[in-house]
Amino acid sequence: MGTVTINANVDNNCLQDGPNSVYRTATSNTLRQTSTTARIMALNWDLSSIPANCRINSATLYLRVYSLESGAATIYAQRWLAAWGATTITWNNMPSAAGDGDSSVSTGTTLNVDVAVPVTNIV
């Protein structure tokens, strides 16, 4: 039994205060915390390298906290029910989620640390 690391291959941000805009990033993704509008970081992984009969015992999403505007933030991980494109997704056309807050953690207030978000139940 081994550990496999799979990096996101597609990403974008969906911002409530820019509902029709595409915020595609080329090599990394940053999402600024705000207390007034909702913001979603859309990430996708190519899981085709995982064999169909493989059992996943655990899955964790790691996100790095570089700065916080006003204390700790809450990160929610959700599985979307439809495909989406990095160059076309916006707040107004993002797919529905399978559940509300399938997994969530607080970032805490320490900077330059990785926050581990358990996502086993949505892989």
UniProtKB/TrEMBL annotation:
Spans traversing the lipid bilayer: none
InterPro entries documented for this protein: CBM96 (IPR055372)
Listed Pfam families: CBM96
Compartment list: Secreted
Domain Carbohydrate-binding module family: 26-123
Superkingdom per UniProt: Bacteria
Keyword field: Secreted, Signal
Principal subcellular localization: secreted
Any one annotated GO CC term: extracellular region
NCBIfam families to which the protein is assigned, alphabetical: DNRLRE_dom
The protein's name in its UniProt record: Carbohydrate-binding module family 96 domain-containing protein
Species this chain originates from: Youngiibacter fragilis 232.1
